[in-house]
Amino acid sequence: MSRLPVVALFILLSLPALDARSEDLARGDLPPADQVEAALHAHLDVRIAESNLLAESASRKRWESGSYEFNVKAGSAQRENSVTGQRQKEWDVAIERPLRLPNKMLLDGDIGSESVHHAEYALGDARHEVARSLLHLWFNWMRERTQADLWQQQVSLLLQQVQLTEKRMRAGDAPKLELNQVQAFAAQAGVSLQQAQLSAQLAGSELARPFPELTLPAAPVMETPVAIDQALAYWEKRVMDDNHELAMVEAENRVQQLLAQRQRADRVPDPTVGLRYSSEKDGEEKVAGVYLSVPISFGVRGASAEVATQHAAATAAKVEATRRRLQGDVYAAYIKARDHFGVWQQAEAAKVSVQLNADLLARAYALGESSMTDLLNARRLALESALAASLAKLDANEARYRLLLDAHQLWVAPDHRD
Asked: In Å, how far from its chain's centre is CA 300?
């Protein structure tokens, strides 16, 4: 084999890995995918859902085998002849078992299988909700940490300004009043910095408690937001066609429908078949036989069937309510992802203009052409615009990731790949 085909084969085999690495690089503001997977798998809500799935798998065997068991009866008696006074010992033994009718046996199997499906969808929904929580807490920490970093920069700039003003005052180029002003601004900024650092610490702790598997970076990574190009109809289809919550309530409705059918089928009671053997008159007579017993109900079975039917109707309404709510959630997530991108663009443009004005005022002050009050106000506005732009960037990225998460294009489970 020549060298060229070998290189081409290597490139083709490496394409999926390259795509995955490119995707990770494009999402550098998110925690590593392996940490996310470990955090989602270890979360208590997911572990509870996994246990429920195992329980439903065991319950399916119970539905398939049924709850009926063999029942053994035994008894003894003594017969006394009233004429002769003779006493004779007698005994009997029997074994019996209720028999499920064939239609009930099929329904029980369907109920067990559908209950497992319901638990599987519940596990997927639990993982999805935990992923939503992780995403929210992660970006909440990024917001608080970003604000703390910007306040740290502001404090550093003001402290530099304090030093510069002190030099100018000693040289006779600046009054004591300007030094007092910049020192006051620096002190206020220091208080805001401490508050921001405390908020960032609390946000990190709030994230670490449910997700100890995540490692916080030394500093937040701020990726450039990406616009949502697809129309609302595209996202509605992606989210609704493969939605764990909707599938879960639909499975719950199917289980209730099957239970209602089972209760209606139970209006015809299952018979009990038994074998009986007895010894009478001190063994002089041996009796063997088969017997059949059928319970007779007076309204209880009909009432149970009506209760199950109404439960099924309630879950059917729950399915429709869930579908409508999810459609509203998709619309809200789409609007947020679309509009937050536009807000970030405007905030970024404003930040550039305000920062340029602050730089011009700083040079003007250095030349003695501007006052300290104007400079400090410009610095304050620059900080506010930088904070607004940074928060808008984080809002835009979080809104887009939330939409991707709901559409199963982010943090997809290993057994749920497209």
From this structure: 41
Q: Which residues span the domain enclosing 210?
A: 31-406
245-282 as b/e: b if 16+ CB within 10 A: bbbbbbbbbbbbbbbbbbbbbbeeebebebeeebbbee
Stated as kind and residue range, the H or E segment containing 76 is strand 71-80
Q: Take residue 409 and report the two structure tokens written for it.
A: 């294009």
Give the residue, 305 or 168, on which the prediction is more confident: 305
Q: Is residue 3 part of a domain?
A: no
pLDDT of residue 211: 97
> What is the value of pTM for the model shown?
0.84
Into how many domains does the chain fold? 1
35 is written with which tokens?
């940490």
Which of 237-241, 323-327, 368-372 bottoms out in mean pLDDT, i.e. has the lowest? Answer: 368-372
What CATH number should be reported for the domain holding residue 59? 1.20.1600.10
Task: Tell the residue number behind the tokens 């982010």, with chain if given.
Answer: 410
Domain presence at residue 11? no
Residue 163 within any structural domain of the chain = yes
Q: Are 126 and 45 in contact (CB under 8 A)?
A: yes
* 378 located within any domain: yes
How crowded is residue 115: how many other Cβ atoms within 10 Å of its Cβ? 23
Structure tokens at 152: 């740290």
